[in-house]
Amino acid sequence: MASNPRLTVRALRARAVEAPMEPPVETSGGTVDVAPLVLIDLETEEGVTGRSYLFCYTPLALEPVRQLVLSLEGLIEDNAAAPLEIQRKLQRTFLLLRPQGFTGMAMAGIDMAAWDALAKACDMPLVEFLGGEARPIPAYGSLRTMGRDSARQEARELAELGFGTFKVKIGRTEMEADLEVVRAIREVVGEDVKLAVDYNQFLSVTEAVERVRVLGERDLYWIEEPTRADDFSGHARIRREAKTPICIGESWWGTGDMAKSLEAGASDHCMPDVMRIGGVSGWLNAAALAEATGLPLSSHTFPEISAHLLAVSPTGHLLEYLDVASPILKEPLKIEDGRAIIPSRSGIGLEWDEDAVSQFLVR
């Protein structure tokens, strides 16, 4: 283990895997039945390897994202493994193309791996390297299923892990189907727990205004992404009509999007996605914006690294427990009494299960 945190990038490795997703994630826009992941290893001259992964949502994106990550090796090879300097260099590279979509994903993956390497070089968990303290992080159980009976069963299983907050995806053609799944979950977890719903951008603004008025009588914790994610003024209009808090943020590409959303007054809660917001570097900027506006900040997927980041976020609120990477990890994130337990291992704590990676490897 290096005693000096100054590291030099030697190589980038990127592998594509399709990990099993059981049960599949159902959304109003379709079903995700496999977890397409790009596994990144940032190797340094000092022998420290930083790790991260990217969740591509569809297998169609796997190879393009993997190739894009690999193509950036020449830009950072022999450079210091300094995340902010790497970010600045890659931002300049993609200035005209814009660092979002596949480019934003690749940049964020490299950023997360570089932070992981630096924390490992200091033999510290990422949370401590960032100046925080490891502590159990309050989390909520994010259901994968939308059907009444399947959601009821999944809620029962999540309740056994100690969760006191749940989220279910809704967005059926008929409003009654949304209400039916809410009632089904309440039958299992009770009326006293917190229950949020996620429309995954399913509604028009007009439809959303109509539905949030009805849902306002159901004592929900928040309503997530009721309309198109980049329609900040539309979300602000919905928010004005809603009795229930509105939550958005997983689709922000960088803090520029976040700043526009905050300026529009689009939500009561925010939930950046560490991959889309710009990795660890982007998250720290997002946490500062959330603090300045007093907005509760929760996470979207990526629970392993999000636990570290929420612990150093001034308005850190809830971790979304939606686990997609555990089939290829030696030690998945642990949940105890509804809280995420940050591992004592150095860095993020990601260790690939190479036997599983070989089994699910695509390229």
Summarize the structure in words.
The protein is of the alpha/beta class and 363 residues long. The protein has 2 domains: 9-123 and 355-360, 2-Layer Sandwich (Enolase-like, domain 1); 128-354, TIM Barrel (Alpha-Beta Barrel), CATH 3.20.20.120. Helix content is 39%, strand content 20%. The chain contains 14 helices and 12 strands. Strand 7 (223-224), helix 9 (232-241) and strand 8 form a beta-alpha-beta unit. The chain starts with 8 loop residues before the first strand and ends with a helix.
Short description:
With 363 residues, this protein is of the alpha/beta class. The protein has helices spanning 62-71, 73-76, 83-93, 102-121, 126-129, 148-159, 175-189, 205-215, 232-241, 254-264, 274-277, 279-293, 303-311, 354-360, and strands at 9-27, 30-44, 49-55, 137-142, 165-169, 194-198, 223-224, 246-248, 269-270, 319-321, 334-336, 339-341. The protein is built from 14 helices and 12 strands.
